[in-house]
Design the sequence.
DNA sequence: CTCTTTTTGAGGTGCGTACCTCAAAAACTT
DNA sequence: AAGTTTTTGAGGTACGCACCTCAAAAAGAG
């Protein structure tokens, strides 16, 4: 039988009240006593029964997913998965809510964050660009006792909060390797498309992509990143210009959003010689393109896994436990038509 | 506030005892009353609080993972993950144990299964070849009230129990597509290696592989499957013979175990012209080969996901709930050196 | 209608923890 | 040493459900 708090109290030679104080980090306990309890925990191998604990806490866990207000199809997919998760985990007393912030106005975004109270949230997972305002808002949030985790988009301040998402440098490298291998023995230029190079994610993907391409495949010329600013018009414009300026385009790497427009357009612009196209994130559009063979491969991070991992991570923080790093690593998925 | 059993009793116009009888499928309740309670469940949107339920049940859940006694590196990986999971989920009152069965002696295997009692296991996940003996043993097991789920290797009898694992036809097709795309414009023969073609998994993978190759890439000649019987000697033998008989081998698809030996050997036998090699399942060996570029791609099913999914599925059965199919789909992962 | 069987109700206990109160003990202060 | 503050103990309630018993009510059989 696993030891209970009662057993632990006996083993430590203190009362249940003291055990409770130590276990839940309440004040008013001498260090000496804390040490004695911790020693007893070690000795007896006590593990708090989370099932009983959450039942007793009564108010399960409430987590917020902070997402940008503007976004692409991928964001819709994320939101859909969050609400699915919310449904499925209500029986486990975990509630998840989506909070939107102004991604183009850091001040307003920070203000929205500052309004999130510890009364309403035990933790939040945030997907946002890294600005000083947001960094500070997150810092104050943690001071208020709300756990935080960066989510899909990493924040600079490593160490202060965990990150759940893929390694974007590796993701870029993966795209690069696939691009080169699919191209085989041809040579030519490769277009690289991003929403904006202001974002850390795009920078990292490009870095990884170039690392593979320039070192191992000098026969290809990866052109400077084209920025779409997330609009269809500009995507059309920059792509048309690029195809006009370069006659030898053999590949297209779409790092960011607006994949749909780019894929369709590239189909028309490239002539009879098919170009190899690789994009990120599975959405209805990219999935369709993969099936239609207008897209050759998709680099994906599974939204379901990310969400579950973010919640596990937040919950572990709330209960100040460690997480198994190996369980929380988000895979860089390669999707082709056959393994959709 | 979510309705509790008490609220439900009031809503259905019955007592708590009756609610308990219906909810836990006990006998001695008229159908009319059962219907009334179910109607009230619908109407009030009652959802049993699993946290409280498992606490009250006192004896968490005990699940067994039935694995073959003999096996390759992949099996070791699975076992490692099961014990990791066991550690991590003890706080959630879920205990998992590994049970080994004689995979070469169906009678002994069935006997081992018949000894698993409902006293000790709430459910078992089984990875075993499909034989009549095992099928019957599983049937009787379910009659004893032990939930079952097929795991990695599917059993024929679809419908009678869920399956957690990948679609092996799709996995084979994925391997085929990658093989063809990596080979590019060359032509030649492709070797296909399996432990045995007796197993359904190998048959399905081969089926998927051929579907892609023969229909879309007639320039390649996928040779008949070579069987290694899981031994290093025989692997060496069949491979050496194959390379002697065919001078135009350009690809090697390793569907089953003994990947390590096959990869190393193929390296030596193929001469200066590198052949494209694709294998299944991530293990220390295959991972190393991928890094060393002696392996071009790996088709993988994540053991961690499979185990968690199997446990979620078993637990849902115990609580006779439905599972979200979308959450339980096991991905066919494509691994290359960059996204390890 | 009576007798038997089946179905239902009322009530209780316990799971392991959180969280609360109040008093008692121990530790510091001056 | 007396007073003040800090630390600890004892005890309780609650969470939502499982599981148990025993008696009462209802339904069915003859």
Sequence:
């Amino acid at each position: 039988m696993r030891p209970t708090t009662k057993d632990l109290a006996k083993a430590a030679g203190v009362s249940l009240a003291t055990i409770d104080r130590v276990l839940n980090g309440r004040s008013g306990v001498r260090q000496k006593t804390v040490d004695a309890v911790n020693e007893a925990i070690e000795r007896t191998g006590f593990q708090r029964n989370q099932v009983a604990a959450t039942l007793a806490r009564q108010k399960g866990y409430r987590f917020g997913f902070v997402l940008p207000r503007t976004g692409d199809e991928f964001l819709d997919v994320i939101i859909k998965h969050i609400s699915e998760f919310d449904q499925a985990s209500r029986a486990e007393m975990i509630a998840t809510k989506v909070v939107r912030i102004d991604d183009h106005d850091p001040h307003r975004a920070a203000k929205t964050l500052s309004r999130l109270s510890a009364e309403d949230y035990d933790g939040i997972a945030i997907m946002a660009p890294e600005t000083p305002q947001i960094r500070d808002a997150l810092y104050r949030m943690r001071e208020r006792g709300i756990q935080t985790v960066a989510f899909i988009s990493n924040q600079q301040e490593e160490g202060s909060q965990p990150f759940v998402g893929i390694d974007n440098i590796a993701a870029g490298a993966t795209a690069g390797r696939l691009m080169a291998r699919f191209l085989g023995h041809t040579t030519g230029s490769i277009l690289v498309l991003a929403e904006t190079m202001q974002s850390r994610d795009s920078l990292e993907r490009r870095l990884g992509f170039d690392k593979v391409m320039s070192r191992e495949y000098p026969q290809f010329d990866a052109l400077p990143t084209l920025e779409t600013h997330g609009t269809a018009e500009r995507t059309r414009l920059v792509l048309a210009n690029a195809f006009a300026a370069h006659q030898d385009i053999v590949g297209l790497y779409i790092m960011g959003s607006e994949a749909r427009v780019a894929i369709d357009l590239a189909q028309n612009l490239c002539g009879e010689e098919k170009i190899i196209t690789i994009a990120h994130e599975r959405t209805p559009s990219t999935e369709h393109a993969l099936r239609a063979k207008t897209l050759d491969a998709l680099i994906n991070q599974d939204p379901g896994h990310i969400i579950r991992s973010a919640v596990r991570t937040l919950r572990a923080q709330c209960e100040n436990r460690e997480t198994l790093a190996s369980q929380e690593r988000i895979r860089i998925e390669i999707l082709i038509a056959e393994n959709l």
Chain A touches chain B at residues 2, 47-52, 54-55, 60, 84, 88, 90-93, 170-171, 173-174, 176-178, 181-182, 184-185, 208, 212, 296, 302, 304-305, 324, 326-327, 331-339 (CB under 8 Å). Chain A has three domains: 5-48, 60-165+303-330, 168-300.
